[in-house]
Amino acid sequence: MDESEKQIMGLISASGESRSKAFEALQKVRSHDYDAAKQLLQESKDMDVAAHNIQTQMIRKELNEGSDANPITLLMVHAQDHYMTAQLSRDLIEELIEIFQKRDKEG
């Protein structure tokens, strides 16, 4: 496995972990454990930052070395799909948790 493939796998892994933590946070809402949900969302954000840093390294490499530095492969497309899905999931789940927490405080 070359360095580019290792970075891609790191992006997939960090993105998947981010998404998993976000969905775990949503599960905590069922038992009204908002503190745990917020902690899991923070962990999700931390993993998202890790994924973002990998992506940024790859972009910098491409800018410095040209488009051949990071060839577009099905694996890279898959990694980007994971990353974008994780971000969207976390953003939506964060909003849902805020809505449920507000509802529980008012009710």
Automatic annotation (TrEMBL):
What UniProt keywords are attached to this protein's entry? Magnesium, Metal-binding, Phosphotransferase system, Sugar transport, Transferase, Transport
- UniProt remark on cofactor binding: Binds 1 Mg(2+) ion per trimer.
For the ligand (Mg(2+)), the binding residues are D81
Q: Which GO annotations describe the biological process of this protein?
A: phosphoenolpyruvate-dependent sugar phosphotransferase system
Matching entries from Gene3D superfamilies are given as: Phosphotransferase system, lactose/cellobiose-type IIA subunit
Q: What CDD domains does its record include?
A: PTS_IIA_lac
What residues form the catalytic site here? H78 (tele-phosphohistidine intermediate)
The protein's required cofactors: Mg(2+)
A single Gene Ontology MF term assigned here is:
transferase activity
Q: What is this protein called?
A: PTS system, cellobiose-specific IIA component
Organism encoding this protein: Lacticaseibacillus thailandensis DSM 22698 = JCM 13996
